[in-house]
Amino acid sequence: MKILGWNCRSMFSPTAVRELLELQGRTKADVIFLLESHLNKYKADEVRRVLNFDSMFVVESDGWAGGLVLFYHKINKVVLNYVSDNFIDILFMNEDIVQWRFTGFYGRPSWSERSLSWDDIRNLHCKGKHPWVVLGDFNEILLSSEKEGGNAIPNAMMRDFRNCLQEMYWQSLHLEERRN
Predict the structure, then answer these.
(1) Which of 37, 99, 107, 145 lies at a C-alpha separation of 20 to 30 Å from 60?
(2) How far lies 159's CA from each of 49, 56, 114, 145, 154, in Å?
(3) How far apart are CA 21 and CA 179, in angstroms?
(4) Which residue has the higher pLDDT, 172 or 156?
Protein backbone atom coordinates (compact mmCIF):
# COMPACT_ATOMS: atom_id res chain seq x y z
CA MET A 1 0.00 0.00 0.00
CA LYS A 2 1.30 3.44 -0.91
CA ILE A 3 0.32 6.49 1.11
CA LEU A 4 1.10 10.03 0.06
CA GLY A 5 0.98 12.86 2.59
CA TRP A 6 1.36 16.49 1.55
CA ASN A 7 1.19 19.73 3.49
CA CYS A 8 -0.06 21.52 0.40
CA ARG A 9 -0.88 24.88 2.04
CA SER A 10 -3.95 25.29 -0.16
CA MET A 11 -5.38 23.36 -3.08
CA PHE A 12 -7.10 26.39 -4.59
CA SER A 13 -4.56 27.07 -7.32
CA PRO A 14 -4.52 25.10 -10.57
CA THR A 15 -0.75 24.73 -10.04
CA ALA A 16 -1.27 22.88 -6.74
CA VAL A 17 -3.79 20.52 -8.34
CA ARG A 18 -1.40 19.88 -11.27
CA GLU A 19 1.45 19.16 -8.85
CA LEU A 20 -0.74 16.74 -6.90
CA LEU A 21 -1.78 15.02 -10.13
CA GLU A 22 1.89 14.70 -11.09
CA LEU A 23 2.77 13.27 -7.67
CA GLN A 24 -0.09 10.80 -7.93
CA GLY A 25 1.05 9.82 -11.42
CA ARG A 26 4.55 9.07 -10.14
CA THR A 27 3.61 7.37 -6.87
CA LYS A 28 0.31 5.65 -7.73
CA ALA A 29 -0.69 6.19 -4.10
CA ASP A 30 -3.60 4.17 -2.74
CA VAL A 31 -4.29 6.84 -0.12
CA ILE A 32 -3.58 10.58 -0.25
CA PHE A 33 -3.65 12.71 2.87
CA LEU A 34 -3.64 16.50 2.39
CA LEU A 35 -2.93 18.92 5.23
CA GLU A 36 -3.79 22.61 5.19
CA SER A 37 -5.92 21.95 2.13
CA HIS A 38 -8.09 25.05 2.70
CA LEU A 39 -10.91 23.06 1.07
CA ASN A 40 -14.56 22.61 1.84
CA LYS A 41 -16.38 19.37 0.94
CA TYR A 42 -17.47 20.65 -2.47
CA LYS A 43 -13.96 21.68 -3.58
CA ALA A 44 -12.43 18.52 -2.07
CA ASP A 45 -14.87 16.45 -4.11
CA GLU A 46 -13.69 18.20 -7.29
CA VAL A 47 -10.08 17.30 -6.48
CA ARG A 48 -11.15 13.73 -5.65
CA ARG A 49 -12.69 13.32 -9.08
CA VAL A 50 -9.63 14.76 -10.83
CA LEU A 51 -7.44 12.25 -8.98
CA ASN A 52 -9.80 9.34 -9.80
CA PHE A 53 -10.46 8.37 -6.19
CA ASP A 54 -13.95 7.17 -5.33
CA SER A 55 -14.03 8.06 -1.63
CA MET A 56 -12.81 10.66 0.83
CA PHE A 57 -13.02 12.02 4.34
CA VAL A 58 -12.89 15.79 4.76
CA VAL A 59 -12.31 18.09 7.69
CA GLU A 60 -13.36 21.39 6.20
CA SER A 61 -11.15 24.45 6.37
CA ASP A 62 -12.36 27.65 7.95
CA GLY A 63 -11.65 29.21 4.54
CA TRP A 64 -8.32 30.75 5.54
CA ALA A 65 -6.41 27.98 7.24
CA GLY A 66 -6.49 24.30 8.11
CA GLY A 67 -8.49 21.63 6.43
CA LEU A 68 -7.66 17.94 6.07
CA VAL A 69 -8.61 15.59 3.26
CA LEU A 70 -8.01 11.87 2.94
CA PHE A 71 -8.68 10.31 -0.47
CA TYR A 72 -8.95 6.54 -0.85
CA HIS A 73 -10.50 3.81 -2.97
CA LYS A 74 -13.46 1.82 -1.64
CA ILE A 75 -11.67 -1.39 -2.52
CA ASN A 76 -9.35 -0.67 0.44
CA LYS A 77 -12.24 -1.16 2.90
CA VAL A 78 -11.61 1.88 5.06
CA VAL A 79 -13.62 2.80 8.16
CA LEU A 80 -13.51 6.22 9.80
CA ASN A 81 -12.42 5.72 13.40
CA TYR A 82 -11.90 9.21 14.87
CA VAL A 83 -11.78 12.70 13.41
CA SER A 84 -10.99 16.21 14.64
CA ASP A 85 -9.74 19.48 13.20
CA ASN A 86 -6.22 18.05 13.58
CA PHE A 87 -6.46 14.45 12.46
CA ILE A 88 -8.30 11.80 10.49
CA ASP A 89 -7.95 8.33 11.98
CA ILE A 90 -9.04 5.35 9.89
CA LEU A 91 -9.03 1.57 10.09
CA PHE A 92 -8.13 -0.72 7.20
CA MET A 93 -10.37 -3.78 7.32
CA ASN A 94 -10.27 -7.28 5.88
CA GLU A 95 -13.71 -8.80 6.17
CA ASP A 96 -14.80 -7.53 9.62
CA ILE A 97 -11.31 -7.64 11.11
CA VAL A 98 -9.13 -4.57 11.60
CA GLN A 99 -5.79 -5.11 9.86
CA TRP A 100 -4.10 -1.83 10.72
CA ARG A 101 -4.72 1.78 11.49
CA PHE A 102 -3.69 5.05 9.84
CA THR A 103 -3.79 8.56 11.26
CA GLY A 104 -3.25 11.63 9.11
CA PHE A 105 -2.13 14.24 11.62
CA TYR A 106 -1.69 18.01 11.65
CA GLY A 107 -0.15 19.42 14.83
CA ARG A 108 -1.46 22.67 16.18
CA PRO A 109 0.68 25.50 14.80
CA SER A 110 0.39 27.69 17.90
CA TRP A 111 3.10 27.03 20.50
CA SER A 112 0.64 27.72 23.28
CA GLU A 113 -1.55 24.82 22.06
CA ARG A 114 1.20 22.40 21.06
CA SER A 115 0.76 20.24 24.16
CA LEU A 116 -2.83 19.59 22.99
CA SER A 117 -1.35 17.92 19.90
CA TRP A 118 0.63 15.55 22.11
CA ASP A 119 -2.52 14.86 24.12
CA ASP A 120 -4.28 13.96 20.85
CA ILE A 121 -1.49 11.54 19.92
CA ARG A 122 -1.51 9.95 23.37
CA ASN A 123 -5.30 9.55 23.33
CA LEU A 124 -5.26 8.02 19.86
CA HIS A 125 -2.49 5.65 20.88
CA CYS A 126 -4.50 4.42 23.87
CA LYS A 127 -7.53 3.70 21.70
CA GLY A 128 -6.02 1.02 19.55
CA LYS A 129 -4.15 -2.24 19.67
CA HIS A 130 -3.53 -2.67 15.96
CA PRO A 131 -0.44 -1.78 13.94
CA TRP A 132 -0.53 2.00 13.54
CA VAL A 133 0.97 4.45 11.07
CA VAL A 134 0.89 8.19 11.78
CA LEU A 135 1.76 10.58 8.95
CA GLY A 136 1.59 14.32 8.76
CA ASP A 137 3.01 17.57 9.98
CA PHE A 138 3.51 17.68 13.73
CA ASN A 139 4.63 21.32 13.56
CA GLU A 140 7.53 20.29 15.75
CA ILE A 141 11.01 18.85 15.45
CA LEU A 142 12.82 16.34 17.63
CA LEU A 143 16.27 17.95 17.53
CA SER A 144 17.49 21.48 16.83
CA SER A 145 19.77 20.07 14.11
CA GLU A 146 16.63 19.38 12.02
CA LYS A 147 16.01 23.13 11.59
CA GLU A 148 17.77 25.56 9.29
CA GLY A 149 17.39 29.32 9.70
CA GLY A 150 14.72 31.24 11.53
CA ASN A 151 14.25 31.49 15.26
CA ALA A 152 15.53 28.72 17.49
CA ILE A 153 12.97 26.30 18.88
CA PRO A 154 12.89 26.21 22.68
CA ASN A 155 14.34 22.96 24.02
CA ALA A 156 11.24 22.44 26.18
CA MET A 157 9.03 22.26 23.07
CA MET A 158 11.20 19.61 21.44
CA ARG A 159 11.51 17.73 24.74
CA ASP A 160 7.71 17.54 25.10
CA PHE A 161 7.41 16.05 21.61
CA ARG A 162 10.22 13.54 22.26
CA ASN A 163 8.63 12.57 25.59
CA CYS A 164 5.30 11.93 23.89
CA LEU A 165 6.88 9.65 21.30
CA GLN A 166 8.98 7.83 23.90
CA GLU A 167 5.92 7.21 26.09
CA MET A 168 4.08 5.62 23.20
CA TYR A 169 7.10 3.53 22.27
CA TRP A 170 7.43 2.11 25.80
CA GLN A 171 3.69 1.53 26.07
CA SER A 172 3.77 -0.37 22.79
CA LEU A 173 6.62 -2.55 24.02
CA HIS A 174 4.71 -3.39 27.19
CA LEU A 175 1.57 -4.21 25.22
CA GLU A 176 3.58 -6.52 22.97
CA GLU A 177 5.11 -8.26 26.01
CA ARG A 178 1.65 -8.87 27.50
CA ARG A 179 0.40 -10.37 24.24
CA ASN A 180 3.28 -12.85 24.13
Answers:
(1) 99
(2) 42, 35, 12, 14, 9
(3) 43
(4) 156
